[in-house]
Amino acid sequence: MKFLKYRWIAFIVSTPFIFGSYASADIWTDSYRLESIGQYQQAREILNPYGKENPDDEFAMLRLGWLSYLGGSYNQSIKQYQKALSLNPQSLDAALGLMLPLLAQQRWKEAEKYGQQILSVAPWNYYAHLRLMISEEGQRNWHALLQHAQQLHQRFPGDATVLVYLARAQRWQGHQDAARITYRQVLQRYPAHIEALQFLAGD
Amino acid sequence: MFAEADIWSPKILLQNNFNQYSDSMVRDSAYSAGSIFSFDKLDRTHFSVGYQYTTVKALNANPDDLDSIKEHRFYLSGSHKLFFDTLPGVTTIRLDGYSAQSKHSVFVAGTPGIRRPITTLTDQLLVINPIISFRNFSKTRFYELGYALSSYEYPDRALADSKVHQLSPAFGFALGQQSDWIQLRAYFIELDNNTVTTGLQDSKALELKWTHWLQPDSLLGLNNIGFQVISGERLFAVDPDAAEVYSLANIQTQMAAVFGQWQIGDQTQILAHFSWQEFKNPTLDNRYNSSSFYINFSHQW
User: Fold this and answer.
1) Is it the case that residue A174 has pLDDT exceeding 70?
2) Cα dihedral sign for A97, A103, A107, A112?
3) CB A195 within 8 A of CB A170
4) Is B40 within 8 Å of chain A by CB?
5) How many Å lie between the alpha carbon of A157 and the closest alpha carbon of chain B?
6) CATH second-level architecture of B8-300?
7) Hey, of B40, B43, B139, B219, which one would you mutate to test binding to chain A, going by the most A CBs within 10 A of its CB?
8) Residue A181 belongs to what domain range?
């Protein structure tokens, strides 16, 4: 009987934590559900109180940064990713995430610097390379983009996106024949690719 | 480990302008040379410092007894980009300043046929030009509003100082697949206490500039070409696009220009600009024109 009494005490003491955890899990579920239907602002608003109460929760900052980016609140997204980065300066997730709102605001050089820092520790990180290519295209650094896309194509030969950037760099450098060949390779990997179809139809 | 990089990218621009006048009663030719050094801190902050030397050569015999004008002009500019989540684009605040000293060498007295002594009259110019602009992310619209206050001082002449107020709103938009860009700029210029030019107190002008980007491997390897026209009257105008102050000109009444730009690699550009301009000197009732060739070379590291 004494044992049962202690079990009741244990249940009563732990109840707020159990319900608290349940409520917390619920906001994550709701946040993912709202994100999946494109309601990014609502998905963020559900998490915001939790983020304010737990400013040192690295994952909450990453999640809020992502949702703010999707919702077009780029300044907010930058702050949240920077906060996540300050909590964990080794975080590739935060640095990669930070590149997104910077690219959205066309802050090409700032995004490029983060991309280069990521590649210094993770040389063939696909997303860092992809976002770096977006930055090179935004700055119209066609020589750099051409060389970069060629190197990346050797590492990711099955990837259509890398080939699209390679074709764009070739076009802008006046290498139309090379661009034609590259766009045909894009269509082998992604037969309905509109940009490749339009370029080849214009021949 | 990951931190915002604090890197400044330098850029240099070297420029030359050759100007030949025709039908002028006073001016023969003009030449200017200058350079602008710029520094960009990533994508947000920009500083420029520049210097330009201009010399105007007068005709041998002219009613103003002018021998030449030499101007030393310094330019300082700073701008900062702002990103608001409520606006779908980039807002830029910019402050330009110009300081110039022009020396007018004038024949004073003497016997015809014998070279006469020359005196030099020094004018001072100071311009403050704050500008705010907005460009959308898709680079299809651009809005700008600038105000310039120019202060002209004539310490060596029996002339009162004058102030020039200029409002220069601009609107730009892309056409087609963004291969064409059209920019309109209006100039509303008001002179306080104009003691230099007869009659004119206010002037208005409209500028149209059309830029067309060419396909790679185009004729002569050009990256873009365009034309520019100005109609109306401009006196003591401040042109924020060219970082130019027309402090030595008479009233500009028309201008037509064509230009082409080459892109060498990712970081080097050469711009060539040919223009024809018409001026009037109301004091002498003299309408004249000029043909100019401007070229610049720029490189960014």
Assistant:
1) yes
2) positive
3) no
4) yes
5) 26
6) Beta Barrel (2.40)
7) B43
8) 140-203
